[in-house]
Amino acid sequence: MEFKSLNNLYELYQSQADKFKDSPFLFRINKDKSTNALTWVETSRQINILAQYLAKQSVSKGDRVMLLSEGRPEWMISDLSILAVNAITVPNYTTYTEKDFEYILNDCQPKGLIVSNSKLFDTVSSAAKKINYNFKFIISFEEIENILNINQLTETEQNNFTSEATRKDPACIIYTSGTQGNPKGVVLSHGGILSNCEDAKNLVDKLEIKQPRFLTWLPLSHSYEHTVQFVQISLGAQIYYSPIIEKLLENIKIAKPHVMTAVPRFYNNLYNKMSSSVKKSSVIKRSLFFKTLELGAKKFKKEKLSVFENILNKILDKIVRKKIINNFGGNLKAFVSGGGPLDKNVGLFLNSLGLKTLQGYGLTETSPVVSCNPVDDIRIDTVGKVFSNNLVKIADDGEILVKGENVMLEYWHNPKATAEVIQNGWLHTGDIGELDSEGYLKITDRKKDIIVTLGGDNISPSKIENLLCLHDEIEQAYVHGDNEKYLSCLLVLNKNIKLDNTQIQLLIDKTNKSLTAIEKIKKFKILDEEFTIENELLTPTMKIRRHKIKSKYKIELEKFYKY
Q: Is the domain of 411 the same as that of 429?
């Protein structure tokens, strides 16, 4: 496929649909564990039907259409239909509150709404009423009283649409998670996403899988998974959807994916569950597991194995690693991690067990991927090689700067914020890093989240929070200490594990051993309430809202420093 010749994302889809035609494409997993598949031809027909309706509603170039749904085949169909009429998709998280919708409706003024179910419709409808906002049209995937259902639409013409969008035209507006305040609408271009797809496809192609299977479970409103769907199209992939998180492991066994994309929290949980399970197993199983880890790590680090170790490692491939891979459907070739830093111990753990894990790096503003580890040379202390279509340089203060077609067009109707992050064509990421001679990028700090103590020391709280959450007993952590003498933290514990303060202190002490003197935690407090999206202490992408936590627990945090 020649990506450079493609003008837009819909053209990418059309070229693949013409190629794969009657091959299965989009899979729905039913309650009885059976599956239904749409072929590329059937998908094209449904896209055409919806696009015809949008055109009749005068949806055209530059118009915004809000898309609010969990992951399902209709999402892909809707997104491509919007693009077919040269309009702009505005994906929204299903976890957004009324307040979030009020802000977004006011900000981007979408012409219409495509929504999956009545619960989501009620939330956005309530927000619209509060600000007297009227959609020109509303379409639903499931039955909603007095709302046009997508299945009621009929085909009026046989001709497929041909998008006139160029690579420089907006394809979507994706709102940032708002960790520091109100979200900003990131405008991504067709060319920016296509540029990302080209490098991502080249990366997956090295796995040598014909029409690979994917299990989509992350929110498609997140820039990471939103772009992944177009990567899947470019690969001619088969896509299974798992909209219910609780059924993820069950659906993995049904889909039998070759590739899975996930955020670090998924891999941290996997690490904790596997470690906990091993602790409860027999002496023989524990011994085999730890030997698998030992030899796997040695091989991964390209250390020489003895003849006996080589033989033993091959045996462990069959009796340990194969069993682990079978738990993920039996076909898994690679995990891809993005959306935040992956702890290198977790990365080594998974790779040593035969679960090839590729860590990448990016931002919503970069469509989103900047770099990713190649399948044949993974370096877990890095976020991989910079994509060939991207330019990266390190500023004098260590900040990572990115330039290329993948960089966003703008923050929607926010020229001031746009000018603050894009200077002379270079996007200022807010991340501190290093770039080696082979093009591997390493993230060393976060500029915006840095704690500056009274002693003038710069400390990354996320690093410490990640280490704390590697303990099975700790679910969530918030590290505090800006303009203070030392660091303290708020902890949310695993509900299934009962611990007293002495036992928690032992965990803190264990974490402190791997930290420098200025990074050590001096005081802590256990919270009764989790950080959740509902209480606004987590963003829809599951990142902690530092300013919200600081405000809510102001009194508790101040007590750390009174004595």
A: yes
pLDDT digit string, tens, across residues 373-419: 999 999 999 999 999 999 999 999 899 999 999 999 999 999 999 99
Token readout for 118 is: 């009545």
Distances (CA, A) of 115 to 90, 252, 284, 427: 12, 26, 52, 33
**How far is it, in rounded angstroms, from Cα 38 to Cα 25?**
6
The reply to whether 213 and 273 lie within a common domain is: no
Same domain (yes/no): 438, 465: no
C-alpha distance from residue 494 to each of 72, 277, 490 (Å): 31, 16, 14
Instruction: Say if residues 370 and 386 touch (Cβ distance below 8 Å).
Output: yes
Q: What is the pLDDT of residue 341?
A: 81
| Residue numbers of the domain that contains 455 | 451-559
- Predicted local distance difference test score (pLDDT) of residue 70: 95
Strand partners, 36: 28
Q: What is the pTM of this model?
A: 0.86
Residue 563 has pLDDT above 80, yes or no: no
User: Does residue 515 sit in the same domain as residue 492?
Assistant: yes
Identify which of 492, 483, 498 has the alpha carbon closest to the alpha carbon of residue 549. 492
| Crossing angle of helices 501-512 and 461-468, rounded to 10° | 130
Dist CA 138 CA 480 (whole Å): 45
- pLDDT average, residue stretch 179-201: 89
